[in-house]
Amino acid sequence: MQEKAILCETVEGIATITLNRPEVMNSVNFQLLRELDECLNRLRFDPAVRVVIISGAGNKAFCAGADLKERAGLSPEQVKAFIFTIRRVFDDIEHFTKPVIAAVNGVA
């Protein structure tokens, strides 16, 4: 079973999203984007959530950007889909219905 790329938990109204790929400095791949999108959709409609904190696992990096190893193996169409998806998810964070805090730990 593949390890989760995103950890999402809520405690006392505070939702914490952790980018969980420390072995690759929490770089963004399709799996991480899908899981982040699902987590955000759950949190958006959860009335108990008042604020969202996004952080990275490990102590080396918050997020190193796109996973270039994955991207190297993508077709031009898949690259377009990745760019479209990452823009949509990041726009969603920017316009989220609740405050979002980036707890930047390490390289960003």
Brief summary:
The protein is an alpha/beta fold. It has helices spanning 30-44, 68-72, 76-94, and strands at residues 6-11, 14-19, 51-56, 100-103. The chain has 3 helices and 4 strands; from the N terminus they run E-E-H-E-H-H-E.
Protein topology:
Blueprint: E1 6-11, E2 14-19, H1 30-44, E3 51-56, H2 68-72, H3 76-94, E4 100-103
Helix pairs in contact: 1-3
Description:
The chain is of the alpha/beta class and 108 residues long. The chain has a single domain, classed as 2-enoyl-CoA Hydratase, Chain A, domain 1, CATH 3.90.226. Helices cover 36% and strands 20% of the residues. The chain contains three helices and four strands, in the order ββαβααβ. It has helices at residues 30-44, 68-72, 76-94; strands spanning 6-11, 14-19, 51-56, 100-103. Strands 1-2-3-4 form a four-stranded mixed beta sheet, covered by helices on one side. Strand 2 (14-19), helix 1 (30-44) and strand 3 (51-56) form a beta-alpha-beta unit. Helix 1 (30-44) packs parallel to helix 3. The termini are far apart. The model has no long low-confidence stretch (mean pLDDT 96).
